[in-house]
Every structure is written in structure tokens, then in C-alpha cells.
Amino acid sequence: MQISTASVLITGGASGLGEAVVRSVLQRGGRALIADLDTVRGEALAAGLGERALFVQTDVTQTGAVNAAITALVNRWGRLDAAVNCAGIAPPRRILGKDGPLPLEEFSRVIQVNLGGTFNVCRLAAEAMAANEPHPDGERGVLINTASVAAFEGQIGQCAYAASKAGVAGLTLPMARDLARHGIRVMAIAPGLFDTPLLAGLPEEARHSLAATIPFPARLGDPDEFAALAVHILENRYLNGEVIRLDASLRMGPK
Ligand SMILES: NC(=O)c1ccc[n+]([C@@H]2O[C@H](COP(=O)([O-])OP(=O)(O)OC[C@H]3O[C@@H](n4cnc5c(N)ncnc54)[C@H](O)[C@@H]3O)[C@@H](O)[C@H]2O)c1
Is the CB of 117 under 6 A from ligand 1? Predict the structure, then answer.
């Protein structure tokens, strides 16, 4: 895929890792639709990025909203070439806490947003991509999902989050196999600890102690490093059906 001619839908694009992907796609001449729940951040971001960026308020768990975002992109730019799923939530809570067992609704909500939302966007984006005229090599589109190292080493308080991200990792190969006949590649990135608004809320001391658990480089990841991998996946036509850890060799402990 040539990013300079591509139109990319980025969920969670109003903040953190998603925002970095939006900026990288635009820097390479592509077009980016920011699909995010957060209207304030999304509109402000799109307004500063020019006419190759568009914000559509989107809840990834809602089929109508996701279809509306895809339709807005196709109406504006002609075709959907890629979808990068960065929308996610990570409320920490133990399965059994001081106030009793984790309510099933809270567990289900995390699964619904992180796993269900990712799948929802993929299935609807794949439908739009399947209608694309293929490139000479047969490629019609690319899907990139964001898992987490918590998919493999979930920490204390991460039952719901780790399960949702393990689900995202597990989707990768069967989805790539399902969509091979349509010329659509599917990849996932499993980030370690990245410096996004998610972590910016922590005190400086806590950020330092988190960074100290990372072997090398012993610092939080820069969202631009995540975006660089996402852009590489879009461009490298032989990457398919794999989860790539991006974590500076971090292996998370229990807490
Ligand atoms: N930051 C990290 O260290 C890290 C590590 C591993 C994985 N991740 C994953 O990367 C992704 C991005 O994380 P981030 O750090 O950029 O977080 P962030 O909080 O900065 O951004 C997440 C964005 O998702 C949006 N969002 C939440 N629920 C949504 C919904 N239902 N529909 C549409 N948009 C929704 C939020 O409004 C927000 O703009 C998440 O899936 C997160 O789990 C982050």
C-alpha cells in the first residue's frame, strides 16, 4: 500500500497512539478519518490538520456509528484502504476486591469495547474494502489492531483488560485467513508501555518507576514509534496474520 494515496480510518484517533498514527499518515501524504468518542479532542485535532483529516464521532461498539464513519470516508475520498484500531479502555480492578467480586457488567464492558469494538470495525471495514478495485498484487486493504503485552502477561487488576487484549491477539490469524480471499491483510501490534494521555495522568515518580522496569531503552515508548510500526505494516505487503510486540523487551511482572 502506498500511504500517499491511501485513506485510513483510525479509531481512538483523537488521542495517544491513534493520534500519532493520524499524524504519520498525513505526513506521508495520506488521508485520515479520526473515529473517536471524544468530540472535543477529535474536532480540535482535525481542525488543525487540514482537509486531508476528518473527524466523525464514533462509538466502535455501535454498528450504525461505525458504518456512518466508513461512509463519510468513502464519500469524501472514494475508498477505504486501511483501518487502524486504537480505541480502548483500561479500567484497573481485581476480580475480587475489598468491595466484592468484579461486577460482570464491568468485565463485559471492557470486552465489549476492546474486543467487540475492534471486531466490529474490522468486519465493517472489510466489507467496504472487499469492494475496492485491487492493486496489481491483489491487495484491497489492511487492518491493524492494537493488542497489548497484557495479552500475554496481564498484571494484577487486569483480568478484563488482559482477556480483551488476548482476544484481539487471537483474532489476528483467523481473520487474516478469512480475509485472504479478499486481498485484505490483518496484523496486530502489542505495545508495552507508551507515553500517552493514559499514562500522563500518573505522577512523575510513578512514570519513572514504570520506565525503570523496561530493559532497553529504559523509557516509555514514544507514540511516534508505535505509528512508525503501523505505517511500516501498511507499506510492507508481506506482513500478515501476526502479532508484533513493541515493548523494548519488557516482560511485565504481577504489578
Ligand atoms: N499507552 C500504552 O502504554 C498502551 C499499552 C498497550 C496497549 N495500549 C492500547 O493502545 C490503544 C490506545 O491507547 P492510548 O494509550 O493511546 O489511550 P488513550 O486513552 O490516549 O486513547 C484511547 C482513545 O480511545 C477512545 N475511545 C475509548 N472508547 C471508545 C469507543 N467506545 N469508541 C471510540 N473511541 C473510543 C478515547 O476517546 C481515546 O481518544 C488502546 O487500545 C490501549 O489499550 C496502550
Answer: yes
Residue tagged active-site, from 161, 169, 240, 245: 161
Tell me whether residue 111 is exposed, middle or buried, using C-beta atoms within 10 angstroms of its C-beta: 0 to 12, 13 to 18, 19 or more: middle
- Give Cβ neighbours of residue 45 (< 8 Å, ≥ 6 apart): 13, 14, 19, 22, 34, 53, 55
- For domain 3-246, the question of CATH label 2.60.40.10 is answered with no
| pLDDT tens sequence across 203-221 | 777 777 788 899 999 999 9
Q: How many residues does the chain have?
A: 255
Catalytic residue flag (residue 238): no
For atom 30 of ligand 1, the residue with the nearest CA is 59
Domain ranges of the chain: 3-246
For CA atoms 126, 131, 133, 136, give the dihedral sign: positive
Rounded alpha-carbon distances, angstroms, from residue 120 to 2, 140, 211: 25, 19, 34
- Predicted TM-score of the model (pTM): 0.98
CA atoms within 13 A on the CB side of 134: 11
- What is the per-residue pLDDT for 255? 86
β-pairing, 31-36 with 53-57? parallel
Each residue's pLDDT tens digit, 16-64: 999 999 999 999 999 999 999 999 999 999 999 999 999 999 999 999 9
Q: Point out the ligand 1 atom lying closest to the alpha carbon of residue 193.
A: 3
**Residue 242 reports pLDDT greater than 90:** yes
Task: Give the start-end residues of each E strand in 115-183.
Answer: 141-146
- Report which ligand 1 atom has the smallest distance to the Cα of 113: 31
Q: Is 68 touching ligand 1 by the criterion CB < 6 Å?
A: no
pLDDT over 90 (residue 105): yes
